[in-house]
Amino acid sequence: MKKITFALMVTLSMASVSWGQLATKRVLLEDQTDVGCGYCPRGKTYTQQIVSSYPAIAGVHKVIGVANHVVAIGPDSMANSYSLTIDSMNGYGYPGGMVDRVKYSDQSNVVFATNNWQSKCVSELNLTTPFAVDITSTFNSTTRVVTPTVTVTVLSSYTAPSGSSLRINCILVEDSVTGTGVYWDQHNYMGNGCAAPDNTSPWYSFPCSIVGYAHDGVARMSLDPSPWGTNGILPASPIVGHPYAVSYTSSALPARWKTNSMKIVAFVTLFNANPNSRPVLNANELDGLSGTAPTDIPGISFVSDLNVFPNPASNIVTIEGNLNTSSEVNLSIVNIIGQTVFEKEYKPSSNFSEHIPLTNMNSGLYFVRISNGAESVTRKLTINK
Q1: Nearest to 25 by CA among 100, 136, 108
Q2: Does the domain at residues 303-383 carry the CATH identifier 3.40.390.10?
Q3: Is the peptide bond before 197 cis (omega within 30 degrees of 0)?
Q4: In which residue ranges of the chain is CATH 2.60.40.3080 found?
């Protein structure tokens, strides 16, 4: 059973906000696929080519590829309730793809043919987004439980259209998935002597049924209460610069899942009753099940080398950094329910160092925030006594 908790102020190890900023734009490319679909290896080829054509930003690709397995043509061992629900948007067929789940004016459906994926990814990457999506996670290899936190910060003004809701989504994805049997073996029409041989296809030299086929980007599990994401965290008009977060706890991952080949994909969607109006507004991925994904929030200018130590702390915490601003700076510590438990103003200077006794602070999660009025940086602080 999955657990989910909500927080209105939870951030990653470091985040910054400046009014009117835009987040790093990434695109979610979803391949609707089925092992019984003989043309579906083509979807894998297109996804690999598109993802690899854009240099990764700090280890995260600009285009994030996910394969949603279904049972439209025959049983598929990788199909699950999440992928089957998402496929309800599919009015096209297989292999079909969605690029940020956008219904394009030149396409009859939100899912469309592989030869259009590249151009639509380019179109989406040329757009801007105010939504920064950040991921931090831990994984217990003994219990096989993953506990990610997805934080969304809106960097400039945004209001959701009437009748729509903003949702946070988090899924687990696995690469190089293999298995034994017909429900794992990939059908291939394009091979020599197969149903539709194509000597221009990279799959021409492969048999009509590929035993041991490595399925990549397989959507394994959604951690949200609904396949359509977690509702009620992001308001219709989010506060600019305010971090909104969801903390998840997965069920124990099945033993056959190779956790060292897994990653976490998180994204923000605009949900509407119309299946052709549920776009992905931004996405991010963590390569692995533990650690912190590269921040989606642009870099800051007014402070550098900000350190909070020791962390966790018990008696005293030291906060230090270098200031690059002509404005006064405010340093504060806030508890999990938003109460300010420490605050101090600093005159402009080249650096600062503050040793703060924790005598009056209980054990728990806190947030260290430094702001110059235009930008702010937040770091997580754990107090253990």
Answers
A1: 100
A2: no
A3: no
A4: 303-383
CA distance 284 to 75: 31
Residues, the chain:
385
Query: Where in the chain do CATH 2.60.40.10 domains reside?
Result: 3-292
What pLDDT, on a 0 to 100 scale, did the predictor assign at position 7? 46
pTM: 0.77
Largest CA distance in the chain: 77
Query: What pLDDT, in 10s, does the model give residues 92-136?
Result: 999 999 999 999 999 999 999 999 999 999 999 989 899 999 999
Report the SS3 class of residue 315. Answer: coil
Distance of CA 81 to the CA centre of its chain: 19
What is the CATH T-level fold of the domain 3-292, as seen in this structure?
Immunoglobulin-like (2.60.40)
Task: Return the ∠ at Cα 335 (arms to 329 and 336), rounded to 5°.
Answer: 125
CA 161-61-8 angle, to 5 degrees, is 45
Task: Render the burial of 100-139: b for 16+ CB within 10 Å, e for the rest.
Answer: bbbbeeebebbbbbbeebbebbeebeeeebbbbbbbbbeb
